[in-house]
Design goal:
Helix content: 25-40%
Distance between the termini: 38 Å
Mean pLDDT: 92
Bound molecules: FE2/S2 (inorganic) cluster
Number of helices: 7
Low-confidence stretches: none
Structural class: alpha+beta
Strand content: 15-25%
Strand order of the largest sheet: 2-1-5-3-4
Largest sheet: 5 strands, mixed
């Protein structure tokens, strides 16, 4: 264990524990955007920066991807961090000016109105990379960052319907600023210029996922784990509960 002082509070941290995880455990709030518990190691938005002093003077690190290696002192709200974070919030807000979370951070950190060129409101993406990472982990890696400068965005190759997209919708679910349009009717789901037919739950009959997503899970996982695959999340939970009771 490592002796750590975070915002004046003495505590112990596991070796290699991320600063953000330690702060959460100590109920110290550090704002995040790209961090997601199911997608490790993005570190792209920089909102979660803190100062860490490991005996050689404080340095600015990205707390969600900075593993603790030695005893240290951490400052999550130093003057420098507040100043830098204000600039980061301002840049993110300029990319997604309508986003309520970023607006809230602007108020909290007294970020002034932008004097820079503000991107058109339909470009809500902050380019954090969460969607592409989720797609790579859960799908086929159908989306990626394309273009440069202000034209940079996340999309499928040539913005066309991609054979790799399985319509799982994970990209839209993890997007922190709701920039990905995923529309559903009772039986269909449309995203990335492609429309999928939804498969009904084997138990309750409510359409819940795409055949392509089910096929990929079957392909990527062991046959012994496929028992409840055709069930919607609600029915799957009930089934797991019943099985646990029977044991
Ligand atoms: S939350 Fe840590 S870099 Fe985005």
């Amino acid at each position: 264990m490592l002796e750590v002082c975070i915002d004046g509070k003495e505590t112990l941290a596991e070796k290699d524990e991320f600063v953000l995880a330690l702060a959460k455990r100590e109920a110290i709030l550090i704002p995040t955007l790209c961090h997601h518990k199911a997608i490790a190691g993005l570190g792209s938005c920089r909102l979660c920066i803190v100062e860490v002093d490991e005996g050689r003077g404080p340095k600015v690190v990205v707390s969600c991807v900075y593993p603790l290696k030695e005893p240290c002192t951490i400052f999550t709200k130093s003057e420098k961090i507040i100043r830098l974070r204000r600039g980061i919030i301002s840049m993110l807000r300029d990319r997604a000016p309508q986003d309520p979370y970023l607006q809230q951070l602007c108020t909290e950190y007294s970020v002034p109105q932008s004097t820079r060129y503000v991107l058109p409101p339909q470009l809500k993406c902050v380019l954090c990379g969460r969607c592409a990472a989720a797609c790579a982990a859960l799908g086929n890696g159908a989306i990626t960052t394309v273009g440069r400068g202000t034209a940079k965005k996340v999309s499928t190759p040539y913005d066309s319907a991609s054979a790799d997209c399985i319509g799982c919708g994970a990209c839209a679910q993890v997007c922190p600023v709701h920039a990905i349009t995923c529309t559903e009717t009772r039986d269909t789901r449309s995203l990335w210029n492609k429309t999928f037919r939804l498969v009904p739950c084997e138990k309750c009959g409510v359409p819940f996922t795409t055949q392509e997503a089910l096929d990929l899970v079957r392909e990527k996982t062991l046959p012994g784990t496929h028992a409840n695959l055709g069930l919607c999340p609600d029915c799957r939970k009930k089934e797991v509960l019943l099985t646990t009771r029977r044991l």
